[in-house]
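Late entry, evening session. Most of the bench is empty. Finally got around to the prediction I had been postponing all week. Sequence below, unchanged from the version circulated by S.P.
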Amino acid sequence: MVGLVFTVGFAGYLMLDSQQELEQDPHWPILDVCLDSHSEVVEHYHVTLSIIIDGSAVAIPADTGIQDEFCPDGMRGIHTHDETGKLHIETPGQENGTIGAFFSIWGQTFNKNQLLDNQANSDFEIVMEVNGQQNNEYQHYLMHNGDQIEIRYQAK
């Protein structure tokens, strides 16, 4: 009987532990990129990101990922130069640039349940479109050169 209780308890612990892992964002290697100059760049492409909260466009700050706490004298693997929503993905090797990694660099939250400070609920949803097609990969979406990404927090 004690063995059965231990086994059931351990199985429950593993299930809870795996659920917590699923809800946490992975550590994407591109988060460790800090470039001193463009001479180190092997990969360089651009993505346009638009965020709309209940019908209003949100400006993505200029210089996000440039000379920040992690990279005080350079630029992160994903960064902005202006407020147009143009993301620059620049890396010294073939690094995967996910949209979630950009939000992490920005210090903001994005997943299927939250966009910035806005929570999905019975009245509002989070919708992501890539190049005009709905995409349910959310923070895990691997960005490609020329992508147009629109993320909306909208009424259902």
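Two things to note before I forget:
The helical segments are 2-23, 99-106.
Residues 2-23 form the longest helix (22 residues).
Will write this up properly tomorrow.
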